[in-house]
TrEMBL record:
Main location: membrane
Bilayer-spanning residue ranges: 12-32, 65-84, 110-134, 146-165, 239-257, 277-296
Alphabetized UniProt keyword annotations: Membrane, Transmembrane, Transmembrane helix
Top-level taxon of the source organism: Bacteria
Membrane topology recorded in Swiss-Prot or TrEMBL: Multi-pass membrane protein
InterPro entries reported for this sequence: ABC/ECF_trnsptr_transmembrane
CC annotations in GO: plasma membrane
Coiled coil: none
Cellular localization per UniProt: Membrane
Protein name: Energy-coupling factor transport system permease protein
Species, as recorded: Thermanaeromonas toyohensis ToBE
Family annotation (CDD domains): EcfT
Length: 309
């Protein structure tokens, strides 16, 4: 289960971008998710992220993120109308509550809770997409020339938990093949069964540590200037993606400057679509942010495009 939440190289197009390209793209998405207040714009970002996650074959992992996100979403939607009383459109007049006074639920407070919940789901989806699109080792490798040893320590630390999860699943499968059922018996018996797992996991982790140390020694780590085994190349797909992201950022900033993407919740909720320009700006930003998705589709079905990017 937990293994699905981590990065897996599946040879997909969206996983072939340069790490800097992915970081810039996700950073711009994060900026938009924080800057936009209009629920229509936030829904568009959420829809785009859903398409990207589906394209990178990460729907199952996304479900795990959404379970936590939906729980927080419900909390926000329930708590916000109870504590915010600045809305003018009262839809329910509640009783007097000690320390809180009269609890009146306004449509604006409920609306704001929904918009905040959508923003939360967008941010969670961005981090989910980060886990699916980019190898964390490649991200850390960007800083290896500055602090090689520190990056190595961080890389080993970040890989430790996914590796332990995979090892634990394999060890559990071996014990199950030997006839041990971890779901039956009393609490003490189940604890005893799981203790076998962790004993084997401890020995396995120590063996892995010895193998890593031997590998580092065989490669003469720390004995001289650091060599490079592989390099991340900037390809036309990266140039197109970065260019489209910058255009989306320019269009988004221009729209925010003139009020497109902003939204007024209190004291009365504003219109979702004020004029035609609201939809036009949304379409332009959405189109430029969709370029990686369009390239991915073209890479699958167009041989000419595949040969050029």
């Amino acid at each position: 289960m937990f293994n699905k939440l981590f990065y897996h190289d599946k040879g997909l197009f969206l996983q072939s971008f340069h790490p800097v390209t992915v970081l810039i793209y996700l950073f711009v998405l994060l900026l938009f998710s924080l800057a936009y207040e209009n629920p229509l714009y936030l829904l568009a970002l959420f829809f785009l992220l859903a398409l990207l996650i589906k394209e990178v074959d990460g729907v199952e992992a996304w479900e795990g993120f959404l379970k936590a996100g939906i729980f927080l979403m419900l909390v926000v939607m329930i708590v916000n109308p109870l504590v915010i009383r600045t809305g003018h459109t009262i839809i329910w007049y509640g009783p007097e509550v000690p320390c809180l006074g009269r609890v009146n639920i306004s449509l604006e407070a409920l609306y704001y809770g929904v918009a905040s919940s959508i923003r939360l789901l967008v941010i969670i989806s961005i981090f989910c997409l980060y886990n699916l699109m980019i190898n964390p080792d490649k991200v850390l490798n960007l800083f290896s020339r500055i602090a090689g040893k520190s990056v190595l320590v961080i890389t080993l630390a970040t890989c430790m938990f996914p590796t332990m999860v995979r090892n634990l699943e394999r060890i559990k499968e071996v014990y199950q093949l030997r006839g041990i059922d971890f779901d039956t018996g009393s609490l003490w018996e189940r604890v005893k069964k799981y203790s076998y797992l962790y004993n084997v996991l401890l020995f396995s982790s120590l063996e892995d540590a010895i193998e890593i140390a031997a590998s580092m020694q065989a490669r003469a780590f720390g004995s001289g200037k650091r060599s490079v085994y592989s390099r991340n190349l900037i390809r036309p797909r990266d140039t197109l993606c970065i260019g489209s992201v910058l255009l989306a950022l320019i269009a988004g900033i221009w729209g925010l400057y003139y009020g497109y993407g902003r939204y007024t919740f209190y004291p009365e909720a504003d219109f979702l679509i004020k004029d035609r320009a609201t939809v036009v700006v949304l379409f332009i930003v959405f189109f430029y942010l969709s370029v990686p998705l369009i390239l991915s589709k073209g890479w699958k079905y167009c041989r000419f495009l595949k040969s050029k990017i």
